[in-house]
Amino acid sequence: VEPFLQYSVLSLGFDETKGPPSFVFVFYELPLDHFPYRFPETAGFFITNGWVGGQGEFKQRLTIEGPKGKILLDTGDRPFTLEDPKTPYLSVHFIQGIEFPAPGEHQVEIHLNGAPIMKYPFQVTQAPPDEDTTE
Questions:
Q1: Which of 59, 49, 52, 115 lies closest to 88, judged by CA?
Q2: Which residues contact 72 (CB under 8 A, 6 or more apart)?
Q3: Average pLDDT for residues 68-84, to the nearest whole number?
Q4: CA triplet 125, 74, 108: central angle to 5 degrees?
Q5: Per-residue pLDDT, 116
Q6: What CATH number has the domain spanning 4-126?
Q7: Which residue in 90, 93, 91 sits closest to 46, CA to CA?
Q8: Which of 124, 123, 120, 64 is nearest to 95 (CA)?
Q9: Cα 43–45–48 angle (5° rounding)?
Q10: What are 1-49's pLDDT values in tens digits?
């Protein structure tokens, strides 16, 4: 039995230190100060997917598509196992080193066993300049 995707969340942080997982700074818009912008290898954001209702072995794949349709990230197939349909599986992806060439609407697409399951947009925008408070 294949699982269904209960949720997919973009966030700047993910915390499991105080019990159940918490998303930190959930976003639908990502303001960046210059373009092209490349996240350092030690910085980035999270895409967290919750799968439930299935049993068996599965393969998940994530892609991020830029405004002009170019694939900016492809995780490739990542296997996971669901032992019990009532026990959810939490899939946390730390996206680091990705480059955003320009602002615009980007798309996250999630695949299960090679088939697209969900696609949703997020905006990459030009951050407003820091205001100089010194005179």
A1: 52
A2: 64, 65, 66, 98, 99, 100, 101, 106
A3: 97
A4: 45
A5: 98
A6: 2.60.40.2550
A7: 93
A8: 64
A9: 140
A10: 899 999 999 999 988 888 888 999 999 999 999 999 999 888 999 999 9
